[in-house]
Amino acid sequence: MSSLFMPHHLHATAADFAGNDSIGRYVFMPGSDGRAKEIASHFSDLETRPHPRGHNVYLGNLKTDEGQTIAVAAVSSGMGCPSTEIIVHELYYLGVKRFLRIGTAGTLQPGLVRVGDIVNVQASVRDEDTTRHYAPVEVPAVASLEYVSSVLLASEHLKLSRYIHTGTVHCKSSLYARELAAGPRSSENNAYLNLLAESGVLASEMETATLFIQSQLYNYQLMQQGEGHAFHVRAGAILAIIGDTFEQSKEADEAVKNSIQLALETVKTLAAQELPG
């Protein structure tokens, strides 16, 4: 990406995201700055680039048991696809090619995907408007296979496999109306969610569709430029199931904690396949 690009919502430069044998930093993208800071507490050599909008950039390294050093970063995407679109765009044009969302979601399969579990996202239902400005709705929003498989390997290593569900999630624009039935269209929105549940969709959240669609389009741009396979954009998502009421519970707190550990291990797993020893 051009070193001349100037982001408007991040205090960072292209040099901040360089590293990892020219692949660039692996970036963790939770929705909140608080969780970005919590993820960054696991980094060594931590540096912070604060921003008044709360999209603070945390730069550092992860050390593996084998002695490998991985350049990483954490930054909040904010809530919803419009905010995520801005941050992903600015990160990409600063050189980022590896995105991993760590978020929360409400289950659409309460008999199977329970509070305390984690969803390894394969694809997203595009029930939002942001991505329609990029591509027609018939284009699926799909995670990178490399991340999906790395999450599964990492969950085995951490002995978390029993909590993991891999599949499709629902990405929406509205929380209170679409998912929580506020407003005069409540019966219509309930019927829509029931339709998704009967179609096998696992959970509902608000950011993955734009992350996946943008990553797919960036990949196309890189292919047109003749970039090699190692420089493709890859994106994945790990979602802790916390329920729909926002009430704290031991199970929800444990899911968030496990999702962070799983995300860290996922990046180590992927990096072991991509980076020279």
What this model shows, in words?
With 277 residues, the chain is α/β, with parallel strands linked by helices. Helix content is 32%, strand content 24%. It is built from 6 helices and 10 strands. It has a 5-stranded mixed beta barrel with strand order 5-9-8-6-10. Strand 2 (44-49) and strand 3 form a beta hairpin. Helix 2 (81-92) packs parallel to helix 5. It is globular, with a radius of gyration of 18 Å.
Compose a concise summary of this entry:
With 277 residues, the protein is α/β, with parallel strands linked by helices.
Count of helical stretches: 6
Strand order of the largest sheet: 5-9-8-6-10
Mean pLDDT: 94
Spell out the helices and strands N to C: EHEEEHEEEHEHEHEH
N→C terminal distance: 26 Å
Largest sheet: 5 strands, mixed, barrel
Any idea what the shape is? globular
Range of strand content: 15-25%
Structural class: alpha/beta
How many beta-strand segments? 10
